[in-house]
Amino acid sequence: MRAEKVDKIATAVVLSLAGLVGLLIISFLGYLLVVGLPNVSWHFLFSPAESFKSGGGIRDQLFNSLYLVVLTMLVSVPLALCAAIYLSEYAPQNRLTATLRLAIEVLSSLPSVVIGLFGYLVFVLQFGLDFSLLAGALALTILNLPLLTRSCEDALQQVPQLQRQAGLGLGMSKWRVTTKIVLPAALSGIITGAILSAGRIFGEAAALIYTAGQSSPAISYTDWNPFSPTSFLNPLRPAETLAVHIWKVNSEGLVPDARAVSNGSAAVLIITILAFNLLARLVGYLIKRRLAK
Amino acid sequence: MDKVKQELLTPSAESRQEWRGKIISYLAIIVIGGLVATILIFLTSKGVALFIQDGYSLGKFLSGVNWQPSHHLYGALPMIVTSFAVTLLAGIVALPLALVSAVAITEMLPPRVNQLIQPVIELLVGVPSVVYGYVGLTVIVPRLGRLFGGTGFGILAATCVLFLMVLPTMTSMTIDNLRQVPKQYRLASAGLGATRWQTITRVVIPSAKGGILTAMIFGMARAFGEALAVQMVIGNAAVMPHGLMSSAATLTSVLTTGIGNTVMGTTSNNALWSLALILLLMSLAFNLLLRLVAKKGAH
Amino acid sequence: MTEQIALEVKDLHVAYGDKRVVQDVSLKFPARQITAMIGASGSGKSTVLRSLNRMNDDLATVTGMINFHGFNINQPNVNVYRVRQQIGMVFQQPTPFPLSIYENVIYGLRLAGERDRQVLDQRVEESLRQAALWDEVKDQLKESALALSGGQQQRLCIARTLAVRPEIILMDEPTSALDPVSTSQIEDTLVQLKEQFTIIMVTHNMQQASRSADWTAFMHQGRLVEFGPTSQIFMNPQEEQTADYLSGKFG
């Protein structure tokens, strides 16, 4: 009798507290969208930012963010995938493997600002890359590697051991078994993980302010020569991303419409990340369905 | 026999593939291992420069309460205290709420609600920290200023922002851990006449204890290392905090603002790298803590 | 008795780390016959089987000789892939790849670089016929192998192994995951197959051993207790342990 009463009261308390949290979260997201979306227009998305007067857009910042994600994925996906193959398929059970796993774990626990500082020290100063997309992409790669490696390894581990043995039993090499049997079966997990990690790095700022830089010089979208200094493709130009833009405008910005620009940018960031998440689900689903056929 | 022997002893296409595979995958892992080693070495050597090159005393650095580069005073204690304070405060508020939300989602609400909430939590986990900082700056700071007077910038504002930021991470990790508790436990407990609440408190939460602790430490580690969101709302005064509403600075916020304003190799720059080293050591400590919890959970 | 010997095992020892699981096993597997290996779980029979085509390479330390055509294949410089192409393996659970039936059967051939459509078509039909699956699937070769029933999937896996044209086929409890009807179909298939292939099979199922095997090896606690013609092992075992096991005293 008493226990039942406690159960009822506790349930009510838990549900109302959870409801409160839900309300908080919904109002947080809702606020961002409600105040942000009215500022998002074609003009906002496709015109360059202003430094001193209002009415600026986020064209270059948006492009930089996306381009940086592409550059980062180009480096980090192959590296993380091969490392995951090592950990999942080749790694012997010994101290070296344990140390490597520990190293990856340590890497994943480093604050992004620390990684940004390391990038500044090594890529920007030591390698002489200056503030550039490339330096930013390398810093983001460091940030991205541990989680991406783990998600790739998880995806590989999900493939039943029997499938590997069946391949080995046919006289296939382990590498062939990995590339021809395990990888295709793990593909949906790998791609989902990669897209989710792309969403994560899309909004990263702390690792970028001292690597990709906080300025975006005028770039030309018609100059397709990646070596030309004004080309939008040039990986050696400094590039302010959308997330860095929000920070910059608010902490030392001089534009009078900082609020409007930030509101709009935040909404665009959130919607893009939502799109990444949905895309990850969709791709995972599509590949799974194709394999099941 | 000789023919068989010869065939079995000669390398085939498979042997070559195997070599290629080994080289590729071993290279990748070596690159990552080397990267971690380089990061640790670089940051450590930069971090100790203040004490070795500039001869600043480690004791004064760790216990000094004055951070005044212009007067050659590098006391990091205010930042260390502030970093711990905002992290702990945010963690203490977030943990019960994360636990309660996770329990509601996994144990009480119907699965369909669950399917709706899952993507929302995923989205929140992915919201960039700058956005949390921005909301703090435009919504939380002015409101705190009106409620308690003053500017609104300070420890409390930073705590609120970090709380908002780690709550989704902690909740989603706790949900995962509660889900891993086998269904049979719940059925068995119910079969013995336990109410749902008794089952939750005596069976479900105790068996997920290690995982919940992990979620909490993980969330606090993230809060401790967060830079920009905190920097935007804390007021950035490198002084010892004396109350919830006082402006302060964390290790990360001083780093963020300082690195661009000092010249590489100078004492004041080296002092910043020493702060970065503290951050690094703290993240290693959090890592160690997580391992200890995991090890204990395994027994 | 002048049986031809397909594979000879001499003084085989297998250990997982410090744990010795197989000790001092010596055996001669007759060619083009079915040999069943029986024994309780943990007796080491599967471990022996998996050592025969070096599937234990990464998992265990295997010492002793495994002579194939008089040549010891348990040496580090031997090309294990060639060994496995000669000594194929079928597993407990059916393991079709998520591909069409046709692609599953010729998987090994494709990897070996065979492109000639005619050769491939012919090999598919031949292998599927040998595995007694052709009549059931000949009209759906392009459809997913995952749509087949468990018994059909297992026969497909046998066909996939046959398509590589091994001399010896190792089977690790090939019917333990199947229903009785599929089991008896597979057993019939095995009897057909022994005209061309040497089959070594681990089984838990005593009746299966007595029905389909020509030879039976009984293992207990990592050692080979008795080996001989199946009828002799079942009707007139020489060792007390064998008799106890067959009468169900342990197992």
TrEMBL record, chain A:
GO biological process, one term: phosphate ion transmembrane transport
Segments crossing the lipid bilayer: 12-34, 66-87, 99-125, 131-148, 181-202, 266-287
Chain ranges of the ABC transmembrane type-1 domain: 62-280
PANTHER family reported in the protein's UniProt record: ABC TRANSPORTER PERMEASE PROTEIN YQGI-RELATED, PHOSPHATE TRANSPORT SYSTEM PERMEASE PROTEIN PSTA-RELATED
Membrane topology: Multi-pass membrane protein
Name by which UniProt lists this protein: Phosphate transport system permease protein PstA
Phylogenetic lineage: Bacteria, Bacillati, Bacillota, Bacilli, Lactobacillales
A GO cellular component annotation in the UniProt record: plasma membrane
Family: Belongs to the binding-protein-dependent transport system permease family. CysTW subfamily.
Automatic annotation (TrEMBL), chain B:
CDD domains recorded: TM_PBP2
Record-linked InterPro entries: MetI-like, MetI-like_sf, Phosphate_PstC, Phosphate_Transport_Permease
Domain named ABC transmembrane type-1: residues: 80-290
Alphabetized PROSITE patterns for the sequence: ABC_TM1 (PS50928)
PANTHER family: ABC TRANSPORTER PERMEASE PROTEIN YQGH-RELATED, PHOSPHATE TRANSPORT SYSTEM PERMEASE PROTEIN PST
Membrane-spanning parts: 26-52, 72-99, 120-141, 147-167, 212-234, 271-294
Highest classification ranks of the organism: Bacteria, Bacillati, Bacillota, Bacilli, Lactobacillales
Keyword field contains Transmembrane helix: yes
Protein name according to UniProt: Phosphate transport system permease protein
One Gene Ontology term of the molecular function aspect: phosphate transmembrane transporter activity
Family: Belongs to the binding-protein-dependent transport system permease family. CysTW subfamily.
Keywords: Cell membrane, Membrane, Phosphate transport, Transmembrane, Transmembrane helix, Transport
Membrane topology listed for this record: Multi-pass membrane protein
Role description: Part of the binding-protein-dependent transport system for phosphate; probably responsible for the translocation of the substrate across the membrane.
GO cellular component, one term: plasma membrane
UniProtKB/TrEMBL annotation, chain C:
Keyword match Zinc-finger: no
Biological process, per Gene Ontology: phosphate ion transmembrane transport
Domain ABC transporter: 7-246
Keywords (A to Z) from UniProt: ATP-binding, Nucleotide-binding, Phosphate transport, Transport
Matches recorded under Pfam families: ABC_tran
Keyword ATP-binding listed: yes
Sample GO molecular function, one term: ATP hydrolysis activity
Gene Ontology CC terms, in alphabetical order: membrane
NCBIfam families per UniProt: 3a0107s01c2
Name by which UniProt lists this protein: Phosphate ABC transporter, ATP-binding protein
Species of provenance: Limosilactobacillus oris DSM 4864
